[in-house]
Amino acid sequence: MSDQTVKYLLPEDRMPKSWYNIAADLPPMAPVLHPATGQPVGPSDLEPLFPREVILQEVSTEREIEIPEPVRDIYRQWRPAPLFRARRLEKALGTPARIYYKYEGVSPSGSHKPNSAVAQAFYNKEAGVKRLTTETGAGQWGCSLAFAGSLFGLEVNIYMVKVSYQQKPYRRALMETYGARCVASPSVETSAGRAVLEKDPDSRGSLGIAISEAVEMAVQREDTKYALGSVLNHVCLHQTIIGQEAMAQMEMAGDEPDVVIGCAGGGSNFAGIAFPYLGRNLREGTKTRLLAVEPAACPTLTRGRFAYDYGDLAHLTPLSKMYTLGADFMPPGLHAGGLRYHGMSPQVSQARHLGLIEARSYQQLECFEAAVTFARAEGIVPAPESSHAVRAAIDEALRCKAEGKAEVILFNLSGHGHFDMQAYTDFFGGKLEDLTYEDSLLADSLARLPQVSEPA
């Protein structure tokens, strides 16, 4: 290929036919525990929430799990997603580093989330499910599940964190365009929501609260299941198509990344780009650095504790061993709502605990500064969540410049920011601020972590 190639496109017949399962290569993880008994969860315990095929994927240790042909048929609408060489950004930074980004904003809903939403909708439809409930932070997952539900004729009810519901009305409109129902959380529709509003009528909401509401509604009807957009093993599994494609495209480019970067809230888009590389590191002894980037206002991997915790505020979900800030920790209302979650994927957490990946946090303003630099060079406006990966990639490139090293940087540009322009307007108007929390509140939240006797 020409030395000036900008984008690397895989033909549709080279789209991966299987997802990669990191559980085959990671050391065994601590068991997930039942919230009522404290005993390890079995498949039957999860059946009120998920269809059987999803449960089997959640607990599988098989290295490859076949992508059903109907799912691959839908993926073909936007997959394989392009890999770009950020030549103009390299020039703007004056760096010897070579920067690549995998762009997931080409999906119908504008982010990486349909990679799992389509799969989950397919398995639920096959199981005879009529109705799905879910939560969403900034709205990328809600839009994606709404899109997937429309393809399979499923009713979709979405509890959207109230601060994002107010900040991002066009994502709400997109969900409704796809036929879903979107409710601001906390709401009066559930016991969990009413309990929060009784204590704080002005609650801005959190993903932990929205999860409680969605789970509560799911278990009330036999024709209804719950779908989660991040954190769980099967979601990380579905996203690995990103990294698998990127590996093939980097081979086309004749390059190999020294560092792979993804933003991290619940962990799915970081896992998507990083887990195939992590698996190779574990199997073959390669040394690719893997960097998860999170907001300083919700620093789960960098300030959280590796411990058992609930995934939701009402303690309806199983307990997982993960990095957590505490299920009742209320992060500030940053614009990167998809990263505003107290916990982290147990698989990502295990990798971090073992020193297999790195973690870094950034403030809101420096991420928007990086996003603007990127947009003015590359033309794509990043979602606020993705701007964290952009910030880290730029910092890595500037490090290379200072050290005179021509390293290769690959990051996941997990979505566009076309529905987040109010955040950019606020940034340019000087209304956007770095958000903080009181250390005492984090300490109190961590002090209330459940006391769990780990199974032998």
Automatic annotation (TrEMBL):
It comes from the Bacteria. The keyword Membrane does not apply. The modification N6-(pyridoxal phosphate)lysine is found at K113. Its cofactor is pyridoxal 5'-phosphate. Belongs to the TrpB family. GO terms for molecular function: L-serine hydro-lyase (adding indole, L-tryptophan-forming) activity; pyridoxal phosphate binding; tryptophan synthase activity. The lineage of its organism: Bacteria, Pseudomonadati, Pseudomonadota, Alphaproteobacteria, Rhodospirillales. This is Tryptophan synthase beta chain. The keyword Thylakoid does not apply. It is an enzyme of class 4 (lyase). Tetramer of two alpha and two beta chains. Keywords: Amino-acid biosynthesis, Aromatic amino acid biosynthesis, Lyase, Pyridoxal phosphate, Tryptophan biosynthesis. The beta subunit is responsible for the synthesis of L-tryptophan from indole and L-serine. Its EC number is 4.2.1.20. It catalyses: (1S,2R)-1-C-(indol-3-yl)glycerol 3-phosphate + L-serine = D-glyceraldehyde 3-phosphate + L-tryptophan + H2O. GO terms for cellular component: cytoplasm. HAMAP family: Trp_synth_beta (MF_00133). Residues 77-415 form the Tryptophan synthase beta chain-like PALP domain. PANTHER family: TRYPTOPHAN SYNTHASE (PTHR48077:SF6), TRYPTOPHAN SYNTHASE-RELATED (PTHR48077). It comes from Insolitispirillum peregrinum. CDD domains: Trp-synth_B. SUPFAM superfamilies: Tryptophan synthase beta subunit-like PLP-dependent enzymes. The gene is trpB. Pathway: Amino-acid biosynthesis; L-tryptophan biosynthesis; L-tryptophan from chorismate: step 5/5. InterPro entries: Trp_synth_b-like, Trp_synth_b_CS, Trp_synth_beta, Trp_synth_beta/beta-like, TrpB-like_PALP, TrpB-like_PALP_sf.
